[in-house]
Amino acid sequence: MTGTETVLGAPAERREGREKVTGTARYAAEYDAPGRAQAWPVPAAVARGRVTGVDTAPALALPGVLAVLTHENAPRLGDPDDPTLALLQSPQVPHRGWFVGLVVAETLEAARAGAAAVRVTYEAEGHDVTLTAAHPKAYVPESANGGFPAVTEHGDPDGAFASSATRLDVEYRVPPLHNHPMEPHTSTARWDGGRLTVHSSSQGTSAVRAELARMFEVPEERITVLAEHVGGGFGSKGTPRPDVVLAAMAARETGRPVTVALPRRYLPAVVGHRAPTLHRLRLGAGTGGRLTSLVHEVTTHTSRVKEFVEQAAVPARVMYAAPALRTRHRVVPLDVPTPSWMRAPGECPGMYALESAMDELAVELGMDPVELRIRNEPETEPDSGKPFSSRHLVECLREGARRFGWEGRDPRPGSRSAGPLLVGSGVAAATYPVLVSPCAASARALPDGGFLVRVNATDIGTGARTVCAQVAADALGVPLDRVRIEVADSDIGFAPMAGGSSGTASWGWAVHEACVRLTGRLAEHSGPLPDEGIAADADTSGAADAESPFARHAFGAHFAEVTVDTVSGEVRVRRLLGVFAAGRILNARTARSQFIGGMTMGLGMALTEDSTVDPAFGDFTESDLASYHVPAHADVSAVEAHWIDEDDAHLNPMGSKGIGEIGIVGSAAAVGNAVHHATGIRFRELPLTPDRVLTGLLEHEHPAGMLGT
């Protein structure tokens, strides 16, 4: 690209693409140094209790083993902001898989063998890992994740529901889900005197540096955290994880660089998970299909280490006009690993339940599910009363229906078949909030005619460095190839993490401001540039985090066509189509990739991804990719992502909304609704695996009392 007129929005190729496909991109485990050691953690083998003894002699006797750290000899650390990082500080075991030791060795193989040789004895205590809606220890927390109030209510939802012409009272269940990024959580740390340098697979280096400074009692300016390439995160790398603390601890104790790469089967216990959610929805509607009452109540679990409450009822506060509304979260503290962020926390499971219930209501009313959603479009945000900065959900629904061919759909369940296959189609809406945080950035004009832009953004595979360069080129009014960009270095300056679909909005705002200021300085300069060039800085504190009078959200509509095999119970998705309204699209290529990636992840949530907590042993039984099934290419045939051009002046200088998560929200519900349309059976628990679907088909064909006759 040589011109400037289409820099922003153009389908520019990712700048690091060649490095990744040729294998020259270096990830956190690949920063070698003389004397580098490897470390392997030792997970607890009881669901709850305390360590009563550790025999490290068998491990230390193995060739290559350098040290074994346990609570008995590990250095005392400062209190972390996140209690899940208080590693090797106490003999207490809060859940199975909690790390109780770390073996450091010359090689990865020696470290693994050493970890297996450590002998740990425990005093086990009784444990409870089973979530139920009627659990006696369930309570209403002060707030849910993100600081949202746990409960909101207006009108008389119970009275309005009781007097409604049509009433729907249903329950849904979403199991625990796991992020499983391609690159496991990994850190390489080295100390040079009192200075710490860490290469970490993290979604944000500023947060990692702050936590390390707090725990190791070192000034932040003496810590550098780098994350040049990150192989996915999906929320699980949004906060510092045990790998970075253990790597820094082991490096300081041994005086050598140390790499800690967490084994994949350990991830479910130590890097967060999407907590299971139990949903109850009560929808009341008048004869015309307008909602009279909406109640969404959620029960979820948290650990005893740290409270984390999945905010799954929050989307119901945004989506539909209902004069009476109540949302409520309840949480049960259990002896389980601490849940955390997973792509679109809250919105993803919450919208699955809400959009499935809306589909059920449409069937009860005999209405088209697209029209039911349009009929309940609110004028302002239902919960806050704020006007929307922009809301084009209706346009997404209508455009999606047109592209999908929805008009030709026979609404009768089970009306289409092809041999043993039942064919169905479904729809669901989607929403995700617009989030933005303060950030620092700098821009420098160089004597050779180029520009250097520096921002501590983290590219987790989304193309962040490319899009930030496009923002810079657009603000500077220069071709994209004249902009060089440096990212993912905590020394650049503070920046928020890549999460909450807020990265580009936050980093891009700071980049834009720095480049605008630089343009002003260049306009005042005459003559050749000095050897060091001319620079300008920006800090969006006070602007990016200012309270907005508008409700700011992205919206979308998902459509799915599925087949259900009546012989095997297998569900296949023939087609997924999404239409999104997400502000100005800054890079058509990377945006489409993000939308499709989210939609595919939602497909996995609907059909294959499932995790269970073993009540006897207290751990996740699906702990690797052999048992936790994510979609493969064969599972994803035709996936289309489209968008509506949105001009929203109330967001940021680019006019953009986040797109990393809106693609997953609603995807699973569209698939589930399509399965109902195909079979006439409403499955209210995910995933829709062949055994579950086949059982439903058999029970549908032979109702209770008739089986075996």
Summarize the structure in short.
This protein has 709 residues and is α+β, with helices and mostly antiparallel strands. It is built from 15 helices and 24 strands.
SSE diagram, text form:
Elements: H1 17-22, E1 37-43, E2 49-55, H2 57-60, E3 65-70, E4 92-93, E5 99-105, H3 108-117, E6 119-124, E7 151-154, H4 157-162, E8 166-174, E9 186-192, E10 195-200, H5 205-216, E11 223-226, H6 242-254, E12 258-261, H7 267-270, E13 277-285, E14 291-303, E15 325-334, H8 347-365, H9 369-375, H10 393-404, E16 416-418, E17 421-433, E18 440-445, E19 451-455, H11 464-476, E20 483-486, H12 503-524, E21 534-539, E22 553-565, E23 571-581, H13 588-607, E24 638-643, H14 667-679, H15 690-701
Helix pairs in contact: 5-6, 8-14, 11-12, 13-14
Computed structural class: alpha+beta
**What's the total helix number?**
15
The stretches of 5 or more residues where confidence is low (pLDDT under 50) are: 705-709
Shape: globular
Report the mean per-residue pLDDT as an integer: 96
Strand runs, count: 24
The Rg value, from CA coordinates, equals: 26 Å
Q: Strands across the major sheet, in which order?
A: 3-5-1-12-9-10-11
Helix percentage range: 10-25%
Characterise the protein shown here.
With 709 residues, the protein is an alpha+beta fold. Helix content is 24%, strand content 24%. The chain is built from 15 helices and 24 strands. The strands form 5 sheets. Strands 3-5-1-12-9-10-11 form a 7-stranded mixed beta sheet, with helices on both faces. A hairpin with a 5-residue loop joins strand 22 and strand 23. Helix 5 crosses helix 6 and helix 13 packs across helix 14. The longest helix is centred in the last third of the chain and has 22 residues, at 503-524. The radius of gyration is 26 Å and the shape is globular.
